[in-house]
Structure formats: C-alpha cells, structure tokens
C-alpha cells in the first residue's frame, strides 16, 4: 500500500493515524478534510511534506472524491461529524457527512476497485445495563440512540450493502471511546483537563455513572493498520482495550493527577437519551490478527494526555473559547421546554 487516502486526517483520530503511518510505513498519504470546527491542520505539524498531500475539500463532493480515490491503493475513512451533543441540536450535518459522504466514497471505491476501510463506533450497538455480563460483538444487533450514532449505523449498513451487492473490498471497525493528544476540547476528557488548566470547575453530566470503554488513540491506530493490511474484506472488527470506567471515576482520576480536590467539579444537566454503558469484546481482533493494545494503564495514559494539553495551550485555546460558548447555549436549550432530557429516549 503505497498511496493511502485518509479522510478526516485533520481531526483527532485521523491526525493521530497519519502520525502513526509516518512512523510505521513508507506510504504516501493524502488527506481529504473540509476543516470543519473539528479539523486542525496544526495537528499534522512535523510530518515531512514529501510524505503528505493535503486537500481541503468535502467528502460529499463526488468529482473531487473520484479524482482522489482513483490513484489510491486504499482509503481509510475517518471523516465524520463526531459529537453526540451537537447531533442533538443540529442533526443535518451528521446526515450529510456521515451518510451522504460515506455513500460518495463508496461509489468512488466501487468505480475504481480500491480497498476501503470504514471507521465506525461502538455506539451503533446502543447501550448496556451496568450489570450486563455481555459486551458488544460483531453479531450484536444495531440499536443506536442518538442522531450521531444512527448516522454512523446507517453508514456501516451502506458499507455492508456495497460489499454484498457490488463486491467492494471493504472492512469496518467499531471502536470504543478514544483519548489522547489532539482531541477536540468539546469531548469529555480534554474538556475537563482544559477546564482545570483554565481555572474552571469540570462539568459532569448527570450522575456520572455512565460507563465508557476507554482506549488510547495509538492503540486504535495500530488496530486499524493491522486490519487494513491483514483483515478480511467484508468483515467487521470491534476495537477495544478492556478500559471500562464510569465518568465520575475518570473525572476523579484527572483531578487527582492534576493535584486538585477530587470533589472539585460541578454536576450539570444530563445529556438527553444519554447511553448508559458501552463495552467492547475485541477477541476476534486479538485472535485473528494477533493485535494487542499497548496502553492499558488509564492513569498513565491520562497523565501523558494532561501533559500534552498543558504543553500545547496554543493548539486548543481558541477552540476552547468557542466550545464553551456552545456549551452555554446547550445548557440554555436543555433548560427550555420541548427537549426530552430524562435520559429515556422514548
Ligand atoms: P473529529 O470530529 O475530531 O474529526 C473529524 C474530522 O472530519 C475533522 O477534521 C473534520 O474537519 C472532518 N470532516 C467533517 N466533515 C467533513 C466532510 N464533510 N468532508 C471532509 N472532512 C470532514 O472526529 P474523531 O473523534 O477524530 O473521529 C474520527 C472517526 O472515528 C469518526 O468517524 C468517528 O465516528 C469515529 N470514532 C470516534 C471515536 C472517538 O472516541 N472519538 C470512537 C470511535 C469511532
Ligand atoms: O462535559 C462533559 N461531561 C460529561 O459528563 C462531556 C462533554 C461529556 N460527558 C460525558 C458524556 C459521556 O458519557 O462523558 C462521556 C463521554 O462523552 P463524549 O466525550 O462526548 O463521548 P461519547 O458521547 O461517549 O462519544 C465518543 O465516543 C464514541 C465520541 O465522541 C464518538 O465520536 C465516538 O463514536
């Protein structure tokens, strides 16, 4: 694989994947990214220009996508609208990018017979009870809760249909919650770290009992690279690193690692329809492809991530202001009548 097209390469996981590829392959990488509020070319600083081409454009732009896909050996598709909270207040961009954008890429890889890897999420499976002994596997029925996860589920189903109907050489991976450097400050872990750095109390939604299955972004990258090289077209792989923790515990860990009182946070209005628990069974990936996560110590990973945000204020400070303005509006909208917010999506 000499020429790889990475969509969403200026986003959190896409940029980390590009850094990973530079370290672990000699591929030439082209990124296609429309630079929404979540894209930041500064996340790609330090990458040798000879190995990277940057195209600022939209994955729904069929002629552009066709032109970029045709000379590629593989496409790794990260581009998405990715934040659940945003999807509750303005779902349209999620439909356009996550559904129409994925469709546009599928048509191009079909035309040019290019290997395709689709990045998806564990959220397509809905949520689990806290005491459910089962975890998500590739046979768990789809049951998404939010506009975000429903559009990711739709995109996965499009990929499966293009495999079956047109023989497209595609794999899908559904990964759990990522953390690490270059993550947008709207997301839970960087939002709380940067709040503390800015002297603001962290914000916990609802009870904080919701469980997420955390994985370091470098482990996500290594799994995707393994699947791209050795995965079986047509297959779905679940990626996770056995990192289940509830939000309250993660927040306490961050506060303690940053030398603060573990109780120094505010509880705010819960997310409407808030998924209770995600948990991934990654045994297929471990057994079939021999993949192993390298960063299973969450406390060490958080400490490294805290250091990164502390040392790279320049990277996040502008986005922080805009993001917190958005969260003020969100709080006001949640307080307004008409939006369901008791955590039950009925
Ligand atoms: P992100 O929001 O940080 O980055 C998304 C990138 O896509 C941005 O650079 C943005 O500019 C770009 N983009 C958005 N719309 C586009 C369009 N129409 N055309 C071209 N580029 C566009 O997201 P992320 O957290 O890096 O997530 C990347 C992928 O991984 C997504 O598909 C997401 O569903 C999936 N995923 C994320 C997580 C997580 O914990 N963050 C977990 C599992 C799966
Ligand atoms: O300020 C906050 N306080 C809080 O308690 C924020 C932003 C979040 N939370 C909670 C909500 C979730 O239970 O923290 C948890 C994590 O929230 P997010 O970072 O928004 O992630 P989540 O909704 O779990 O989705 C993430 O993982 C799956 C990514 O954003 C998705 O793109 C991915 O598919």
TrEMBL record:
<dbReference type="GO" id="GO:0009225">
    <property type="term" value="P:nucleotide-sugar metabolic process"/>
</dbReference>
<protein>
    <recommendedName>
        <fullName>dTDP-glucose 4,6-dehydratase</fullName>
        <ecNumber>4.2.1.46</ecNumber>
    </recommendedName>
</protein>
<dbReference type="InterPro" id="IPR016040">
    <property type="entry name" value="NAD(P)-bd_dom"/>
</dbReference>
<dbReference type="GO" id="GO:0008460">
    <property type="term" value="F:dTDP-glucose 4,6-dehydratase activity"/>
</dbReference>
<dbReference type="Pfam" id="PF16363">
    <property type="entry name" value="GDP_Man_Dehyd"/>
</dbReference>
<comment type="similarity">
    <text>Belongs to the NAD(P)-dependent epimerase/dehydratase family. dTDP-glucose dehydratase subfamily.</text>
</comment>
<keyword id="KW-0520">NAD</keyword>
<feature type="domain" description="NAD(P)-binding">
    <location>
        <begin position="5"/>
        <end position="294"/>
    </location>
</feature>
<keyword id="KW-0456">Lyase</keyword>
<dbReference type="InterPro" id="IPR005888">
    <property type="entry name" value="dTDP_Gluc_deHydtase"/>
</dbReference>
<dbReference type="InterPro" id="IPR036291">
    <property type="entry name" value="NAD(P)-bd_dom_sf"/>
</dbReference>
